[in-house]
């Protein structure tokens, strides 16, 4: 006897619900034998849902003979004509399935039915005694799993019936919304993470690995099943990093059996790991590893994947192997219309970088002569490769001209930058300058081979634009080559341009660039010293000497070009040059070099600037030479007339011993009190304004902390009152807590500092509470305070902190006013603090409200 058993297919069930799936539950082939000479009428539920009558006779399972009259009465059938071209009612299907072979008529009949399972390979038969054994054998699923599936099927059919009913009643929009939500729920629950287009990948899950040893595979599965690995087709930085993290951890385990990794998973991983984005800096490395793994798993790569894998192989250092792979793919990928252009573009880039210029040109010519829309910009790698060989420099120029002709008006500034960079990298400055001239002028101006450049080109205004562009693009080596070339042509680079190059070198922080900056800056200083010496000789010789020859001697020029000797720098240093070196030496703590620089400054007959003075004072302070710093400040400010600014006084207050030394020395502290009051007086009398918000926040804070550390309590009160009027300064709550707790910086997070901050905040709250109680006693309504009242409160709390620090419980107002009057005279703010003279306050005002708030 033969019996056909249809395996349960979850995929077919999803098809009923307008869902597509590329996987179903695995069903091992089995045969079922009966003692009776008839065929079993067991049919899977999914097939029943799709069953349609094709003849005028009712289906076999609708026309079974019942064993009793009772069952005949309970199984009244509809005529076949009523069932034609109609779907079976789901409720009717469920009712009839409930009365199927094991639960209905066969069980009530007099027939004795036995079921067996036969293994086709071994021909062994196994008797099936219970419904659970039959279900498990026929479906390949455990009874509990099958029960859950049947429950899911019932609910899905009920939902589908509800949606169809809503559509028939005219609620199409609501039905469409429910159907969409239904699809999303099923896909998210049973299909796993499916990528940007759900049906393109199917189930993204790796099966066949279980147990604690294979936890890494499960972690990868959890990542694949995320709801939003991709959003709008673009993976996030976190997704890119975690995708490689989980896959690289699972590679060794997956290598035990690559066949268990579905193709959909490979494609998804390739799409994510090879995504071109700034957030994916290791894109090529990851692509190369993944492509090797796919090759080991014998998974064929698509044409686009092969191209990217070849490029990754080349970038990872396997240049010869990558080029060989590219050659072999000419018949397959190279002949495909979709990959023709990227295939030959990749070949041009790889061969040009590898030095095989001939093959690169052949690939470029094939691409440009084809019917496919080529991009003439593919010539740029060829120009770069040809320019690297001095013997092919003319050919590189010809190829550039070809590209320029093909592009015409569509050639962009970026294209010119690529060409210019290609020539400057190999030292072909003349060709680079010619390309820049082509970019700047519409008419043809040929400068190649000329001893003297045309006036429209050979001036520091035109060349300054080029240098500015090169420096801005970060091509510092190219900019210096241009400077050297221009000097050979007799064009002196403007100091502002060369200072810009020096500053860019210093900002880079590289040791080689710092050395170049130092070398060029001192060459400029030497040029300035030579100029001063010639000027002195000219004055002695009554004008019979010339200061310098703007055009180098022709013989010397030829000798320099022949021996490639760097010409002498003719650009003279300015105050900005000295400032750049001073800041660099000070930040690197090269105090001796800074002193040498300052001595040369006098020889160069350049007046010291405020910036130079600030850097030298700071350097003396760092070297613990405070006396020299004070003497320098006095000499420059009082004798030479250098105007100090806010940064000068910030530097001077920081130079006090209480801000430099860990251990306080009484004699130094007493000296600091006098110095701080003098600095404050000079600061008030000097005309300057805050230029940055950072200085506005740092200077008042540094002054108050300096006086607190020196225990100049009256000076702190005077300084705060004065700064309120001339700085517009008001102590903040955070500053009050810091002053109370005695912590100069909140950056050091220790347990002791945390306790001190907590205690300081508690004391500040007590001060504010007492201040507000006094206000209520004086008639304040006790409601919310205005901003002006809050400012007054903070100033009152500040003075309470001073009294507490000075260990004074109560201060007599008359005594306080006397002390304030005496100290304010010493600090030069008597008219501001005591008299409150508005004219004096206006003259000493140091801030512009709009500038500081902006």
From TrEMBL:
InterPro entries attached to this UniProt entry: TPR-like_helical_dom_sf
Biased composition (Low complexity): 62-71
Chaperone keyword on record: no
UniProt entry keywords in alphabetical sequence: Repeat, Signal
Superkingdom in the source lineage: Eukaryota
Residue ranges, compositional bias (Basic and acidic residues): 79-89
Leader sequence residues: 1-24
Region (Disordered): 60-90
Gene3D superfamilies in UniProt: Tetratricopeptide repeat domain
Protein name: Pentatricopeptide repeat-containing protein
Organism per entry: Podospora pseudocomata
């Amino acid at each position: 006897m033969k019996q056909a058993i249809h395996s349960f297919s979850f995929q077919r069930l999803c098809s009923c619900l307008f869902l597509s799936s590329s996987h179903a539950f695995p069903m091992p082939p089995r045969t079922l034998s009966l003692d009776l000479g008839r065929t079993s009428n067991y049919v899977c539920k999914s097939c029943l849902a799709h069953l349609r009558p094709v003849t005028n006779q009712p289906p076999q399972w609708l026309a079974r003979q019942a064993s009793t009259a009772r069952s005949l009465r309970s199984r009244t059938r509809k005529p076949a004509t009523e069932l034609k071209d109609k779907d079976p009612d789901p409720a009717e299907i469920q009712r009839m399935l409930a009365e199927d072979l094991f639960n209905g008529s066969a069980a009530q009949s007099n027939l004795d039915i036995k079921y067996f399972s036969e293994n086709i390979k071994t021909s062994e038969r196994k008797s099936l005694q219970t419904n659970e054994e039959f279900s498990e054998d026929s479906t390949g699923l455990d009874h509990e799993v099958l029960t859950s599936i049947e429950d899911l099927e019932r609910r899905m059919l009920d939902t589908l019936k509800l949606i169809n009913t809503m559509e028939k009643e005219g609620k199409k929009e609501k039905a469409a919304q429910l159907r969409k939500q239904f699809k999303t729920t099923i896909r998210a629950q049973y299909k796993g993470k499916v990528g940007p287009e759900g049906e393109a990948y199917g189930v993204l899950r790796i099966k066949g690995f279980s147990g604690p040893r294979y936890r890494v595979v499960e972690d990868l599965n959890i990542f694949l099943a995320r709801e939003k690995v991709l959003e709008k087709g673009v993976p996030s930085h976190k997704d890119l990093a975690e995708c490689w993290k989980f896959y690289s951890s699972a590679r060794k385990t997956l290598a035990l059996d690559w066949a268990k990794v579905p193709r959909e998973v490979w494609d998804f991983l390739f799409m994510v790991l090879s995504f071109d984005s700034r957030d994916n800096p290791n894109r090529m490395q990851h692509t190369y590893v993944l492509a090797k793994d796919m090759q080991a798993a014998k998974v064929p790569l698509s044409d686009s994947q092969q191209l990217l894998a070849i490029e990754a192989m080349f970038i990872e250092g396997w240049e010869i192997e990558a080029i060989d792979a590219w050659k072999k793919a000419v018949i397959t990928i190279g002949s495909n219309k979709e990959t023709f252009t990227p295939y030959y573009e990749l070949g041009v880039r790889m061969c040009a970088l590898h030095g095989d210029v001939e093959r690169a040109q052949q690939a470029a010519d094939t691409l440009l002569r084809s019917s496919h829309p080529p991009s003439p910009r593919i010539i740029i790698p060829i120009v770069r490769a040809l320019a690297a060989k001095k013997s092919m420099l003319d050919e590189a120029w010809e190829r550039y001209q070809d590209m320029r002709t093909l592009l015409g008006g569509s050639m962009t500034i970026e294209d010119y930058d690529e060409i210019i960079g290609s020539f400057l990298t190999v030292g072909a400055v003349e060709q680079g300058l010619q390309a820049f001239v082509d970019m700047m002028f519409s008419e043809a101006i040929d400068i190649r081979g000329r001893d003297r450049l045309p006036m429209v080109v050979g001036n520091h205004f035109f060349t300054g634009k080029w240098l500015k562009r090169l420096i801005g693009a970060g091509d510092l080596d190219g900019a210096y080559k241009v400077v050297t070339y221009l000097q050979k042509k007799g064009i002196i680079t403007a100091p502002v341009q060369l200072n810009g190059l020096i500053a860019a070198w210093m900002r880079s922080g590289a040791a080689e660039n710092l050395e170049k900056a130092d070398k060029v800056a001192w060459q400029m200083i030497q040029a300035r010293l030579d100029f001063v010496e010639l000027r002195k000789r000219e004055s002695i010789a009554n004008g019979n000497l010339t200061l310098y020859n703007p055009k180098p001697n022709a013989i010397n020029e030829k000798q320099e070009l022949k021996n490639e000797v760097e010409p002498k720098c003719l650009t003279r240093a300015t105050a900005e040059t000295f400032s750049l070196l001073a800041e660099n030496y000070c930040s690197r703590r090269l105090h001796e070099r800074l002193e040498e620089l300052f001595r040369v400054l006098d020889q160069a007959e350049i007046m010291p600037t405020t910036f130079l003075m600030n850097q030298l004072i700071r350097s003396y302070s760092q070297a613990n030479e405070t006396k020299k710093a004070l003497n320098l400040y006095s000499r420059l400010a009082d004798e030479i007339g250098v105007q100090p600014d806010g940064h000068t006084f910030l530097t001077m207050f920081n130079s006090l011993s209480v801000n430099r030394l860990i251990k306080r020395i009484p004699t130094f502290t007493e000296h600091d009190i006098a110095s701080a009051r003098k600095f404050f007086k000079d600061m008030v009398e000097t005309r300057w304004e805050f230029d940055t918000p950072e200085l506005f926040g740092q200077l008042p804070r540094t002054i108050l902390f300096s006086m607190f550390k020196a225990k100049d309590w009256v000076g702190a009160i005077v300084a705060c009152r004065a700064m309120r009027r001339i700085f517009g300064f008001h102590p903040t709550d955070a500053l009050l807590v810091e002053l109370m707790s005695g912590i100069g910086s909140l950056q050091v997070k220790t347990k002791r500092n945390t306790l001190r901050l907590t205690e300081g905040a508690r004391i500040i709250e007590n001060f504010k509470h007492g201040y507000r109680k006094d206000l209520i006693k004086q008639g304040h309504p006790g409601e919310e305070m205005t901003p002006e009242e809050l400012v007054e409160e903070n100033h009152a709390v500040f003075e309470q902190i001073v009294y507490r620090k000075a260990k004074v419980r109560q201060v007599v107002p008359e005594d306080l006013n006397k002390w304030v009057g005496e100290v304010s005279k010493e600090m030069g703010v008597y008219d501001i603090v005591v008299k409150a003279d508005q004219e004096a306050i206006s003259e000493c005002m140091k801030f512009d409200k709009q500038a500081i708030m902006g």
